[in-house]
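Hey team,

Sharing the Hydrolase run so nobody has to redo it. Sequence (256 residues) first:
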Amino acid sequence: MARHGGRGWHGKLVGAALGVTLLATGASVWTAQAGTADAPKPKASASATPGNDGKRVETTIAHSSDAGPRGVNITIDDGPDPTWTPQVLDLLKQYGVKATFCMVGTQAQAHPDLVKKVVAAGHRLCDHTVSHNTSMDKASQAYQSQQILDAEAMITKASGGVRPMYYRAPGGAFTPYSRELAASRGMRPLGWNVDSKDFERPGTDAIVATVEKELHNGPTVLFHDAGGNRSQTLEALRRLLPWFKAQGHTFGFPIR
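Structure output:
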């Protein structure tokens, strides 16, 4: 999972995230994703209510689809955004597609009406931390806990009580600790198989070509509905959603 650079709009959030000082943990993204290291059992803070139904889920990073071998999981990151999220929702509705929205806590807090619309449309919620710090795997466990649990609380409150079902580390910066913490809250760590590269705005044709070329890697596809002009993402989805169906794919959610 590649890290995305140059996300200036998130950089301001990182600096404001409760003034927590980053400390190196030494856990690489690859080690965390491979699930090769054992994690200490984290303690949940009182700042967030238990995730989902309170039942622990697997700590391994989910990539598969609950729709089976021909399933495709559409995942939408970094919102909600008042300009782009409603348009993404309209497009998904047009094609009868359900998606997983990985929300930044501060964005959810600022736009609770959009969080509720996402839930009302039958989509699922995912915790994408408070500040979208792509160096979280270099941070202290206290910082990781604050980022995950506070975002969980923000999203849950904004949704009217619906808790996120997944946790996606910004830029794939998982650690054994963050995976264990999320799983203990009922949020399955969520990866991706295909990075559409839409965040870089390479052009609609390039986004479409990337997804079509790399879908053989697996069913979970990464798009964005915030962080800048997402018109290319919208046009790419407009072309890709019917293409998936024409190729015999069905749409599902990541496994839990």
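Residues 28-34+56-252 form a domain with the TIM Barrel fold (CATH 3.20.20.370).

Ping me if you want the raw files.
A.
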